[in-house]
Amino acid sequence: MARALSLDLRKRVVDAIDAGLSTREAARRFSIGISTSGAWYRAWRSNGSLEPGRQGKPRISKLDAHKAFILALVDTDDRDITLAEIAAYLESERGVKASVTTVDAFFAKRGITYKKDGARRRAATSGRSGGAGRMVRRAARSRSRPSDLHRRSRWLSPSSRPF
Fold it and tell me: H-type helices in 31-149, by residue range?
């Protein structure tokens, strides 16, 4: 990510505009963008500061204020609830518009994952009763050992091995 331009340059641009140059002329003189020089001057006039703002993603989410509500939806719902349904509940009951991606990022930030079914079972129904998996707050259980059915040593007898 690019760094913010220096405070010294910002001050020289604002001083030049104050001295009578237009924002275009100041931008051309200091080799910066026209909108950049205008934005710096407007910021200086409005709050008197030339400090650059924080770059990057915001650290807080608009869903952080509704954490208890969202987690209650996941915990008390006796059927599985989708991210789209959570977004719809937020809009209807709390008046907060959130996309599915925002809801997914909310759960990812807290380490809450969706577990489809038991370990080593297929996602499709296999005659088992009950619905799909639930949202869980722990990492999925790892396998006790890696599957090695693809290895020749498992299905070829020692005498018939080609090597």
Answer: 34-47, 67-76, 83-89, 100-109
Q: How far apart are CA 79 and CA 110, in angstroms?
A: 21
Q: Residue ranges of the chain with pLDDT lower than 50?
A: 1, 155
Instruction: Take residue 36 and report the two structure tokens written for it.
Output: 């950049």
Residue located via tokens 């296999």: 126
SS (H, E, C) 67-88: HHHHHHHHHHCCCCCCHHHHHH
Q: Are residues 97 and 69 in the same domain?
A: yes
pTM value surpassing 0.85? no
Q: Are residues 68 and 107 in the same domain?
A: yes
- pLDDT tens readout for residues 117-144: 555 555 555 555 555 555 555 555 555 5
In angstroms, rounded to a whole number, what is the distance separating the alpha carbons of residues 138 and 104?
16
